[in-house]
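User: Last request for today: this protein with flavin mononucleotide, please.
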Amino acid sequence: MRDLIVYFSLEGNTEYVAQKIREKLNARVRCLKPVKAYSTKGFAKFFWGGKSAVMAEKPELESYDIDLGEVDRIIFGFPVWASSFAPPLRTFIEDNREALSGKRFAAYACQAGSGAEKALTKLSKCLNETAFEQTAIFIDPKAKPSEETELQIEAFINALKEE
Ligand SMILES: Cc1cc2nc3c(=O)[nH]c(=O)nc-3n(C[C@H](O)[C@H](O)[C@H](O)COP(=O)(O)O)c2cc1C
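Assistant: Here's the final one, the structure of the complex with flavin mononucleotide:
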């Protein structure tokens, strides 16, 4: 099984989980980076990021080197923004629609409070209603570390191993 983790992370929480999965699953990882970076500061962070998510924007991405032909399963990782998935994933999916058809998918969401279930449903719709083999939701795993979250991450990785 060749796994690829495709994620976007504004403040490191989604990235934290991606690195853990990479280590334990021996997966490859690609981080999506918008050409015009989202603000990480105060009001602007929530305003521009929230607007981008609500408007279902497709921000232009810096070029990435991914050969999807060599991949069996893609594990998407994203922060929840306004109860949706962060927009860079939409760009990636739209740009690679053909190459993604027939692939297997899993996904995890990082959030501060709520909205991840809706966000995962929206991501599945964006992938033509394809069901995820596994999903997981983590509460700010890096910013608010806890033993419970670590166990949840471990359980997600174990479930990915069993598929
Ligand atoms: C623009 C924006 C919108 C957000 N919307 C939500 C939300 O709807 N629900 C929620 O629980 N957290 C929300 N958050 C918090 C992040 O989802 C959460 O802190 C996540 O762990 C950040 O992941 P990252 O560090 O990989 O960017 C939002 C954060 C930003 C910047």
